[in-house]
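Supplementary Text 2. Reproducibility record for the structural model of the 640-residue chain.

All settings were left at their defaults, and a single model was retained for analysis rather than an ensemble. We include the record here because the model underlies the residue-level annotations in Supplementary Table 4.
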Amino acid sequence: MSVPASLTNSPDGGEVVPEHIDKRKPPPQWKLLALGALGIVYGDIGTSPLYALRECFHGPHALPLSRLNVLGVLSLIFWALTLIISVKYLLFILRADNRGEGGILALSALLTPPGKRGFVIVLGLLGAAFLYADGMITPAISVLSAVEGLRLATPVVDGFVDFIAVAILILLFWFQARGTARVGALFGPLMLAWFCLLAVLGAAHIFQNPSVLAAINPMYAWNLFDANGWQGFVILGTVFLVVTGGEALYADIGHFGTFPIRVSWFAVVFPALLLNYFGQGSLLLRDAEAAVNPFFYMSPGWALYPVIALATLAAVMASQAVITGSFSLTLQAIQLGYCPRLRIEHTSSEQFGQIYIPAVSRALMVASIALVLGFHSSSKLAAAYGVAITITMVITTLIFFLLVLSKWKWHPLLAVLFAVFFLGIDLSFFGATLLKVFHGGWFPLTIAAVIFLLMSTWRDGRRLLAERLRDSKLSEDSFVADLLANPPARVPGTAVFLSGNSLGTPLALCQNVTHNRVLHERNIILAVQTAEVPHVPEQQRLESQKVGDEFYRVTLTYGFMEVPDVPRELMPAASLGNLTDQRTVSYFVGKETLLATPGSGMYMWRESLFAFMSRNAQSATLFFKLPAQQVVEVGVQVEL
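Retained model, structure tokens:
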């Protein structure tokens, strides 16, 4: 795949952006975008106070409730939010956007040229697989933890909590089709109210015991480890719950941009979270019985129902970060060749990245409902939560280290110090969360393994199929020589023959000439390729070359965050004579029937799996937006 030089990464190691965008200035609508980011990006991390501190003193790995332990856990929470989110993600990782898009696959695509990044792509696929697993757990645990507050208000609903949570999840996923922009406009103000509530409740309890603020001193964290030994290390797996959502904010930068996301964090989210966690700690020091559910015990009795209602709304919003991140991740995977074609709906004509993928939404919904019905409580789900994200964070740090070392040209000592420091933190959390494997952590590991298998099989199968098709293609010179020796009849109109690459003669063209003995007046061999950048400028989209009498070879290049629209690009192309009459164009598409054969370099069961995925992928006609009435599919059997 060739990419125009103007689309390659910046050699100076800075953020790679289109030339017309000045990243030194905030976007004109940054205030509205920052408000929308509260509803989409920070829902996950913003609802962690519902369960994170509770699990430290009431879950299966709970610490004894004492002043030393409360202050130690608060110190760990403060420094986890500061170092992992504020420093690592907000100050460093968000700089590694691929022309405005983020996420683990965008990061791995930014690092190295195609064909030379096997290790990095394996890491990227693993990280993506674990993000999908997290996207299944986040809606379940967020909604369950909020609805469980009703148990404190009235015992009547005790047996109906699961069903209430399932009903809310169904409504949540139904709402996805309305688009990120509309959801953000609605959820932004509601999430702002949620963070204000967090801050007010926390500040009220801190005022009753200001000494709890001493936990900012990291020595309290050290004292916790010293006093509790192995159990102090184990508690890291629970403390990690306060930073889940960090990877989602990186994946969602294409929706809002880095500046609004940073403003939202430092102006609203970060102070509100700290106030609430420290307020919960102050409450626990005064009332040990509040450990059952410290967040809801913070609320005055008269305000319990309104707080539960707002918490439930916040839990619904919490799911948006991972759901929209999953949509963006899937589009990247499709365009980069790691996922079969799926139906993609653009929900906004004004902003890139506003997409909805029904198949992904349905899969996440079914998995989230199954988790609610299977685990029954947020405490049990908390044991499964965090395992996937710790692994993704480790992978992100590794890829970022390779990026700053090889592309951004940091001094090797500085790059190594960065990697050692943050990998030390990530691996500590990872080691602690591994203890959750037998308490529910097996679920995200299993889901991630299945998704990685599917993505790697699709990638390897596509490579194998391309090799087989390339071997069976005629060279362009041989095909032209045969046409000159045996010229076929020419019929009116234009024929577009889709090809998997820009070399050789498409099988559909060969078979059309062989069996029908005709050629159209104008013939276009079309290859659609994906660049290693999210968006390709319109003026660099189409490249054409005249190879004979009314015979053209055309390459359309799209970014990995763009959905191809072939007719829209071809019709006005001056180099092709302006195909103004769409009705005179016929599209010839090869439809391969794949046959698994031994000895091809892939196991037979993987070849069969790839063939199954290929049969169930969205058709090229729909994916490339071809007019169905003008498409001719030419079948061919291919032995893998």
